[in-house]
Amino acid sequence: MIIASKMNMPEAEKHLTFFKEQLLEYEQQHDETFEVMAVSALTKEGIKEMLFRAAEILEKIPDTPLITIDPSTESEHKVFHLEEEPEELFTIRRENEAFVVDSERIETLIKRTQFTSHDAVLRFARILKNMGVDAELRKRGAVHGQTIRIGDFEFEFVDWM
């Protein structure tokens, strides 16, 4: 099942038609068949149908594992552990009257945030707060209205407390 999302966007139908044409060629070449469902989270169009269809597909999957491994035939077992080194998420320094927050992670977040959307701005602020940026700025003396610079962007510090 292939889910075509964001169908509320301009030209989405045109792109979906093109995709289906390309998919049909692929299906014919590889003797496979895919179901395409168009949805829009914004308008909620197609969401209920997609969920019901996914539930139908999941119901048909057998409860038994598709592959069983006999431990006696395994000659070697490898166990991998991911050990993340604690990384410094951000640093804060003073530059004249402004505070400068240095963080690749936050700069990437800024580039992905649509600041014309109120919800996106609130989400951005919530992430910074959860990362501890607000608390650290306050600890270093930032006050309401003070300039905060992150990458190429400048913001005013808003003290919600």
Structure at a glance:
This protein has five helices and six strands; from the N terminus they run E-H-E-H-E-E-H-H-H-E-E. With 161 residues, the chain is of the alpha/beta class.
What does this structure look like?
The structure is a single chain. The chain is α/β, with parallel strands linked by helices and 161 residues long. It folds into two domains: 58 residues, no CATH class; 66 residues, GMP Synthetase, Chain A, domain 3. The chain contains five helices and six strands, in the order βαβαββαααββ. Strands 3-4-5-6 form a four-stranded mixed β-sheet. A two-stranded parallel sheet has the order 1-2. A hairpin with a 2-residue loop joins strand 3 and strand 4. The longest helix has 19 residues. The radius of gyration is 25 Å and the shape is extended. The protein starts with a strand and ends in a 5-residue tail after the last strand.
Structural key phrases:
161 residues; alpha/beta; GMP Synthetase, Chain A, domain 3; 2 domains; 4-stranded mixed beta sheet; two-stranded parallel sheet; 5 helices; 6 strands; extended
CATH topology label of the largest domain: GMP Synthetase, Chain A, domain 3
Rounded radius of gyration (Å):
25 Å
Q: What would the principal axes of the Cα set say about the shape?
A: extended
CATH architect. name of the largest domain: 2-Layer Sandwich
In helices, the fraction of residues equals 25-40%
What structural category do the secondary elements indicate? alpha/beta
Q: Total domains, how many?
A: 2
Q: Give the percentage of residues in beta strands.
A: 5-15%
CATH superfamily of the largest domain: GTP-binding protein OBG, C-terminal domain
Question: What is the tally of helical segments?
Answer: 5
Secondary-structure element order, N to C: EHEHEEHHHEE
Distance between the termini: 48 Å
CATH class of the largest domain: Alpha Beta
Q: Please state the average pLDDT score.
A: 88
Number of strand elements:
6
Low-confidence stretches: none
**Can you summarize the main beta sheet?**
4 strands, mixed
Strand order of the largest sheet: 3-4-5-6
